[in-house]
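Think of the structure tokens as a kind of shorthand, similar to the way a musician reads notation: each symbol stands for something richer, in this case the local conformation of the backbone. In the example below we present two proteins back to back. Begin with the first one, reading the sequence and then the tokens, and try to describe in your own words what changes along the chain.
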Amino acid sequence: MRLTMAQALVRYLRSQRTIVDGKQVPLFPGVFAIFGHGNVTCLSEALEAVKDDLPTWRGQNEQSMALAAVGFAKATRRRQIMVATSSIGPGALNMVTAAGVAHSNRLPVLLLSGDTFVNRRPDPVMQQVEHFGDPTINVNDAFKAVTRYWDRIVHPEQIISSLPQAVATMLDPADCGPAFIALPQDVQEIAWDYPEAFFEETVHSIPRARPDRDRLAQAVELLTSAKRPLIISGGGVRYSGAEAVLGACAETHGIPVCETIAGKGALTHEHPAHVGPIGIVGSTSANVLAAEADVIVAVGTRLMDFTTGSWTCFSPDAKILSINAARWDATKHRALAVVGDARETIGELADALRDWRVDKAWTDRGRAEFRKWNGMLDGFQKPTNDPVPTYAQVVGVVNAKAGDRDLLITAAGGLPGEVMKNWRVKAPHTFDCEFGFSCMGYEIAAGWGAAMADPSRTPIVMVGDGTYMMMNSDIYSSVLAGHKIILIVCDNGGYAVINRLQNGKGGASFNNLIKDCRVKEPFSVDFAKHADSMGALTRTVESLADLAQAMDWAKTTDRTTVITIVSDAFTWTPGDAWWDVGVPEVSGRDSVVKASRAQQQGRKEQRVGV
């Protein structure tokens, strides 16, 4: 079959299928694209020819469209993969941040960028960055640090071996992450006789690795010796589809379950075994239990610092049992590593535990601590006479008005901590807080991608004013494409949570809140008018009652709807664990010196490698 390399690539993508909820669907359901000279003449020609079968969506910014692809992957729980394509140079580099988001969160996205000429005849081409000592290097090499699979196609035949490897990487639960393929302009145009077998329809399934029997037996021995076990449910539980098995196992054997940021939403807030989020943006209930637990069962989590409180959440004597599809994650901190799929491993573990059950006093302790935490949340969210509402109050109203299946999305600033604590999940898989990379700008783009992934539910995106200013163009994208999101903009006058950290470590407020920046005259942006200019329906509210009414209205609209509200920049929901950050050992500010001493004292509580 004689095709150009670009045409063959597109034909291959169209022939890949997968099974989602018992139904055969495209593995690659669409392409986000911004065309430039590096991909418009060849790749765009191939995509245009199949636009009805493989839809192409125009982005407004390469980073945000790739973030939309990441949001799509998260919404489908890694079962379908979007493509994002850019030209060479700045367009390609704009996608590097999105690749970092996908890489740190173990999410699949296929990134295709134009590249310089293999024959080098016209060098240096427009947007080419030349390296005097190595002419093979260009900006696309930057993706090597933030992708699981990287290749540059210098001969049209190479896609026959490269594309299947990229697909296999993105579908592997252990290696899952972004794949990047550079497409040199002169190679895209070359026609080649491809074997028809390369384009045969292939239906993919995601492999489920079973645990080693001996290691599973050791896990059973460790867990049944525990007096106070605690399960940490991570993102891998959701991607494995292990939520029901995990919940049943925990409930049957009386083991409390706390959740990481990526894992929140596997269990509902009211699940009998649920005791809240753990760590730096966690709950008092989970953190109290973590400090007393003698065995930590970490399922599908990479145990980042926000989960472990920089390794101060747990007793130095606590043992860690880590169940993970990835060996790298399973073997951290000298854990008993059980490498395997979360659903299959928990299922086999539950069977092996048989009639064993933890002491009822520990189970009851978890429920009692969680009841106290819920009472605290009620207090934080209760309306007051203060003219400016807190994050907790705003989140409480939005949460109450959200439908059971509506998807909450946020990523950076003060909102991750506030929604982790205050958002009470009503149904599984309705919560997306991107905090592996904590990327400002993910939120609105991911909302677009999530709305595209499942039109039957509405993404509710919550951002601060700082994030809105950083990346908002996909409000326009979502209106253009007809993918509705509800966007809540909380305006607290700048980067409030970083100001909190700055003050908390003894520093003066500097260059975070707008009023503390070098400006002629501080003023607020009219976010509603700005969003209105991009086609969204908008409303500015001043009270919690107005916010509740606006949420009711937003649920009835036919397009992306934006609600803005001024929120408090200085009131935060407590429950945090300790966090290790750098604090100057010497300073002219006494408050900084005091904070440094406190930081050094906190480090004495850290588990070091165990």
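Once you have a description of the first chain, move to the second and do the same.
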Amino acid sequence: MDRYPPIADHGLVGDLQTVALVSSKGVLDWFAAPRFDSPSVFASLLDHDRGGYFRLAAEGDDVTYHQLYYPDTAVLVTRFMSADGVGELMDWMPPNTSRLPTDRHTMIRAVRAVRGTVRFTLDCRPRFDYGRALHELDFDGDRATFHSPDLSLHLQSTFPLERAGEDVQGTMTLTHGQVAGVVMTVCARSGSAPAQPTEESLTEELWSTVNFWQSWLSTTHYKGRWQNSVRRSAIVLKLLTYAPTGAPIAAATMGLPEQVGGERNWDYRFTWVRDASLSVRALLDLGFAEEASAFTTWITDRMRERAHLEGERLQVMYRVDGDPQLDEEILEHLEGYRGSYPVRAGNAAMDQLQLDIYGEALYAVCEARELDLVQAGYHNWLGTASVLDWLADNWDRPDEGIWETRGGRKDFTYSRVMTWVAFDRGIKIAEHFSRPADLGLWRHTRDNVLRQIMDRGWNAAEGALVQHYEGEVLDASLLLIPRVGMLAPRDPAWLSTLDAMDRKLVSDSLVYRYDPTASPDGLRGSEGTFSLCTFLYVDALARAGRLRQARYAFEKMLTYANHVGLFAEEIGRTGEQLGNFPQAFTHLSLIMAACTLDEALDAQRRP
């Protein structure tokens, strides 16, 4: 077993409240319960010896591996091939469709021999609370229960298990057509064990899960190019969204490094206002109005709950239930992925000042106008209007910016761009629904923000809008400018900025977010190209009419997806995926770029 497989060497399964990663060799090496942001049960991806894992795989010196998804589902298939036979492992989590939070989560692992004879081995070693909590094992032949202080893990199989200290192992040899399986259920310590699985019950659960995903995906409106990539990205966004509230997390994992061996290792299992707000347009483009509606309700609730309090009206990020407490701690006992230390749980950036979030929040609300969500919530609108009134007096301040740098506050241009968006969209909503608003104040502020951006954010030497007012560094976050409409896609100032980015930030169609050596961000080490930014680059190129360049960049970027179509946060110098995995922001920007480029290509073909 590899101590640390490549980050990209994984598939993702989930039940709409939590997720698990399974490597291409059948190792479950990341799983947190009962929620995405809960302490881990398996985390060997962050410490092979202390984190815990659950391996179920074929044995043999000549075994080769291949992993894929059952089409249009979140059912993961890992195939083991040898001279003696071919076996398959199917991993899935039955979706929880009740929309009620639960502490009970089930993962099913079923194996079968497709050809010949296959010997499978099982090795289950949970390590609760990031490996800090001890557990006790109750064992009885084909069932085992691991008890930690807070949780119980029930393991029930259709084949005999063996006790190995406080862990469990097992072996089975299957011949052509034979099936076996194991059901893992995590619940509160007081929870009861589920029924013993049978081949019939495993089959029923499998097809129920397949039908759920294929039925959900069949409702999409998207019929354009790159269907497989777009549909897989939609499933990723669905898997990373907490169904009880509609809040998506930024990524499935914590602590995976932006540079192997470095310190840029963050916990991404929370809801960023920015990332989640931009997902609304992507969901609407695909026809998933229910998911867009759920998040819009969530974000307007966040604005309303602080509308009349002192201080900032929104926080950068929240837990999926809206809890603003994300205190950061360093898990000193974990060595980190391939020695990438420290491993952080929680995120101290929650306290940063990032003024762009108001623009993204209003962007989401405005995009959802077509669902009549704003019209249905008058009191939510009053909270939103109060936020804009407050922002009119508080927008002109240095902040930490979109990239959450820890090198001090600056007048970041992107933060001003999104401030412009906040007032522009607020005006549109108020006019569209005839809602009470201080439109004179909002228009005056919007226009002042734009003048300031063009006066102070423009760098004549670069011929471009730059990262912040005091520097000359370019920043790929500004690629959103034509999408949000602050400048037209073919405005000369914008095309000049795009050309400057081509020169300074683009490397063989992949895009760096900025140059940390030229704009110190308070952290040691370097980073790869930012996958989000590459897809935003494609979107901007398509809007600018540079379709050949846009299509080349898009299709080249798709080749950097992993074997099952997933993306992490970054691409390293040798093509490896880096950072937390998979990342929602990357997949939503893929959808955005695909929709924009597909529409532009169709328009080009029309007479």
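Compare your description with these statements about the second chain. The two ends are 58 Å apart (CA to CA).
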